[in-house]
Amino acid sequence: MPSYMATIERSNRKPIDRVEVDITITDLSAGRQAWHGEFVSKSVDGILPDERISLTFDTGQKGSARVKETHFDSRNPTATRITFDGTGPLA
User: Fold this and answer.
1) DSSP state of 74
2) If I label 61, which of 2, 3, 8, 49 is the partner at 20 to 30 A Cα–Cα?
3) How confident is the model at residue 33, as a pLDDT?
4) What confidence category does residue 1 fall into, taking pLDDT thresholds of 50, 70 and 90?
5) What is the mean predicted confidence (pLDDT) over 60-64?
6) Which residues touch 50 (CB under 8 Å, ≥6 apart)?
């Protein structure tokens, strides 16, 4: 999974700047693609499953996604791993 730096804007309008995002893009057909990925955020950010997020990658591409799952690790309580699915093509 390639990694990119991104800014993530949440539905509550509180952006998370400079986050390393691992992303996988699958081309389904001409002009159609599916994508999903994950990133680690601070647990205090309180990101919830099914939350809508917008990502702006350092490459200039933008996309919208929905949080699929959050993975809290009690051994590292300050960080939560977030997985998401893209809801449309990257522009």
Assistant:
1) T
2) 49
3) 79
4) low
5) 92
6) 66, 67
Helix (H) or strand (E) holding 57: strand 52-57
SS3 labels along 10-55: ECCCCEEEEEEEEEEEEEEECCEEEEEEEEEEEHHHCCCCCCEEEE
How far apart, in Å, are the Cα atoms of 91 and each of 15, 47, 62, 76?
A: 19, 24, 5, 35
Closest CA to 71 of 45, 49, 52: 49
Q: What is the pLDDT of residue 63?
A: 92
Look at the pTM and tell me if it is higher than 0.90: no
